[in-house]
Amino acid sequence: MAIDTSNTYPATPDAVLALLTDEQFLRDRAAALGAQVQEATASGATTTTRLSAPTTGVPPVFARFVGSSVSVTERSAWTPDGAGGHRSDLDVQSEVFGRPVRVTGERRLVPADGGTRSTVTGDVTVDAPLIGRQAEGAVRELMGVVLRKEDELLRRRLG
Q1: By the number of CB atoms within 10 A of the CB, which of 22, 26, 63, 130 ranks highest?
Q2: What confidence tens digit (pLDDT) does each residue in 32-82 have?
Q3: b/e for 112-145, b at 16 or more Cβ within 10 A?
């Protein structure tokens, strides 16, 4: 299942990156999602966030199997992209039904019209026979919620 989203911000790529790699921002993003932070670390342009995320909004067919929360780990290691922007691999991992769930892809911050265009592209894979495609769709929808909450928080912080 593909993920492809884009947003623009009235700040430089460096300013957007500074927020995305700020430990307090990571904690505030988790709080906006109603998640409990188990770990939020930022070291330079590298971040790791481990949290217990609520499964509210998970389709009922899956909710009975996953319980009220799932453990999620997200890692980012940002590097300059050579055009005044930044890029990072998208790496989000979880386990549902005892099976691995992964969101992989790329995040980019590029200069655009006096600000920054942020893009997130990737794929969701759920290694679960019979229900994998349906579960991938549910995870894709949840990633959409995460990215919308992150966008709202970024906009508030950037003014």
Answers
A1: 26
A2: 989 999 999 999 999 999 999 877 766 666 666 666 778 899 999 999 998
A3: eeebbbbebebebbbebeeebeebbebbbebbee
